[in-house]
Amino acid sequence: MTRDDNKLDGLRIRVYEVDGNDNAVAASVQAMAASLLADDWQPVMRVLEDDEQVHSLINESQDTIHCLILLASDDHEAVIVNLIGDLSPELLGTSLTAMDIDLPAVDRAIDR
Fold it and tell me: Distance (Å, rounded) from C-alpha 52 to C-alpha 2?
């Protein structure tokens, strides 16, 4: 895949207020991540800390990332970010660098 072959089809961002249901929301986010893993999505990053969790997974084939999803929740809100398209791992890495996002786990998962 060359840089010109990259195609972003969409970006979806959903933010949900937890409103006192933090245990149920945390369980739902965990279940979503488990379901994606069962469907052969590849984990990029996972952070579990106190009442917070973040899961980042990619759906890929060969050298193309078709979708990246970020699932996060804490005791205030749940956030789902879904990047959809055919993207090269290099473009994703360049984009994260340009946004000054330091995620070394992303590099390790992509460089395999």
Answer: 37
